[in-house]
Each structure stands twice: as C-alpha cells, then as structure tokens.
Amino acid sequence: MDVVRYEAAGGVLVDGGCVLLLRTARYGDLRLPKGHIQDGESPREAALREVVEESGYADLEIVADLGEQDAEFDAGGRHFVRHEHYFLMRLRSRQQVARAPEESDFAPEWHRWEEAIAGLAFDEERKWLVQAQRGTQGR
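Request: output the structure for the sequence above.
Response:
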C-alpha cells in the first residue's frame, strides 16, 4: 500500500464561550478547520490561512501553540500519515471575507464548548478542543 506523508495545520477558533466548527456537506459531521501546509509556509501561517479560508473570519490572532500530533488513516487504497499542528486562536473582530467556492463544502458553526467537544467527528480533534478549553480558562 502506498504511504502518503504530509503536514497540516489548523486552529481552534474561540469567541467568548463558543468554538467554531465546520459541518461537512458530504457527511454532516463536525470538524476543526485545518489544511495542508504549503511550500514556504510556517505551521502558524498555514493555520491562520486555513481557518480564514474555511471559516470566512478574517481578523484572527493566535493565542497559543497547542502542539503537534500524527494522524494516520487509509483512503482510496493508500495509507496517509498527516503531521498536524494546532493553534488556539481568537477573533479580534467579526470581519469576514468571501470564501472560495471549493470551501462551500464546509459550513462554519459556533458551538458552546460542551456541545463542540461532544459533537466532533474525530477523537484526535477532540483532544485539541479539550486542551484549548483548558488554555482559555482564566483568560
């Protein structure tokens, strides 16, 4: 089986007591915004770009580096190893930009922490939400 390795970065975007998740059109499940790190891009730059592209929220700042992990999965007869970087982010304002047509597969939704943690489709992403929630307490 072919093995495909790549790096991705994403964010846990918070505003008040809510977290932004993306509902996928294909499966109706909830996920965190993330995507491939492009050539010449740092994980921080990629995370900010991906969250803006997928959510439409344009005025963000990184609050903390949540860490890294490897996620492995099989799809289309290949084995994927994705090295992921996640960052805690917050909205500086509600300024939005138009999302590209290819991002229409993701509908941004704001959820309270408890429902966000319970509603995520993947355990690997749930870990980032729990860690981010701890990082926002007392801020």
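The first strand starts at residue 2 and ends at 15.
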